[in-house]
């Protein structure tokens, strides 16, 4: 039963497998057959049995199918045999027709072959024409390239090369002539590079040679523009009544200045007119096309930096003439004008950062050069022209966008040097004025001459105006000349301040400081040197003191003069005052001291003429001649002193009397003088009396009482002591405030007494006296001893 059950189970499975085999593609039968072997044992045998049964079933079905269609097959064969006979007939007819067509088409075939050959030739011709049409533009472009090279149109030639390479050569690259052209293009490019670089070098050499002309043109344009603006501003100032930086008597004749500038502007060329920049543009474009723009930029900048260093080198003698400075500035301006033009017309060749770096380098070098060379300038006119050149130089480059503040800072340094050169120049002017002065009051004989002097110097004296002609000004010719020259100095100082873009307050301060230096240093030094010159006498010194007084009074007019120029009021807080008061006061003090010194020297000259007979027995009865001459001289001198301030004349008179008294005293006490007789003392007393009479005659007004006579009090008391021989009173009252001989020093009295004692011994002057009165001789000895004791006591006390 179990086997029967297994057999029943496998039958459906075998049928399924057979169905899969029949329905499945032969390539996929493998897995199905494998399942037959993977099933139960004897499944293969059973499957084969089932397969045989299936085959038998199919054979039976085939046999049934054949039996069903057999009659139709037989009928078809019969009909096919009937068609065979008709087919053979048709074949014969077709063969015959073909033969006839072949015979008829031989001529057509010949003509057709001719047509084919013509068509092939036509096609070949068309192909040739097409190829030629393709090659002709290439050849034309290459010919155009050659023409451009010959015409030196290198940038166009490079563009043509680009078209050939990118457009034309790819179309005909298979031809040999194209390969030759392709191989030749790099050589042409290299040739263009060399030629353009050669043109650039020529251009750089050209602008190096013409940079001064370019700079001169640019500076002229800047100067004309500035002059036009200044002239226009001045006309506006005149129209509205405004004060300008020049005095009314210094306004230049500029009525047609604007019109002249307009005419000149039309004649000035531009930098494009002077320089052909096409080599730079051409070379830049060429290198840009070749892809070597950076190489070109580096080369151009390197070469221009070398040229900049050459331009910035100054000549060793540049400071000698203004043309040297002008040539230096024009070359630099020309260089940077070219760079500015290149900056604005090209892209990338020159950048603002590059020009700024180049300018900063150049500016440092320029300042160092100017600082060094300007230090050698001793001519203020040259320094002023240098300043004007620097201003034009700075304004020109500032117009092109370059910063120039450091140049204006340099101008302030040069301004100090300019002031020094002005001071030196005016020192020479003052010296010449002093040398040419006659040191006498200015005489005028009519109103015209009077007005001429007044126009030169601000002098006001109602008393002098009331006097009739001829009359004299108290000062000498040097005073108005010095006043005029001080104004000229102010004008000269003002010239440097023009165009420095400074305020009126700063200009006013500079003018006042410069004028103070002129007064306190230059003029004061010249006055002191003049005063100390040996040929300047007392009369000249007196006139110098008078001159300085009037110059001092004129300082306020100089301040007003500066105020009118700058429009800065003197009441302004920071306004500098002129130091004329101290300057001329110092000069007067020096002159006064020199008067005292020269007066004493003159007294010494007279005193040296003294020829006393110190051993005379009796006086001459009159004063010595040298002393009378001296007194007459002093009287005449003190008459000249009437124009001096009272204290100066009084001091000079007192100083002269004191010096005369001291000189006379020293004459008595001279160590070389060994003996003096009483007659000589009496003669000496006559001279001192004349001195006292001179002092009492009030040679200079202003002394109170016998003040001037006190200068001879020492001599008077000493001579009275010896003339009266009042030793007892002297010794008794010595040291008392009310002593009659208070001014007689014991040592002085001792020296003179010993000289007189020596005379008595040698000349027996007291011989008779000693015989008649030996007590008096003993008194002399006693006096000498007492005087010595007083002197010793004084020395011990000291």
TrEMBL record:
Transport keyword on record: yes
Gene Ontology CC terms, in alphabetical order: exocyst; plasma membrane
Domain Exocyst complex subunit EXOC6/Sec15 C-terminal, chain residue ranges per copy: 407-755
Exocyst complex component EXOC6/Sec15 N-terminal domain boundaries: 50-219
Signal peptide start and end residues: none
Keyword annotations from UniProtKB, A to Z: Exocytosis, Transport
InterPro entries on file: EXOC6/Sec15, EXOC6/Sec15_C, EXOC6/Sec15_C_dom1, EXOC6_Sec15_N, EXOC6PINT-1/Sec15/Tip20_C_dom2
GO biological process: Golgi to plasma membrane transport; intracellular protein transport; vesicle tethering involved in exocytosis
Keyword Transmembrane: no
Family according to the record: Belongs to the SEC15 family.
Role played: Component of the exocyst complex involved in the docking of exocytic vesicles with fusion sites on the plasma membrane.
Protein's name according to its UniProt entry: Exocyst complex component
Gene (name only): EXOC6
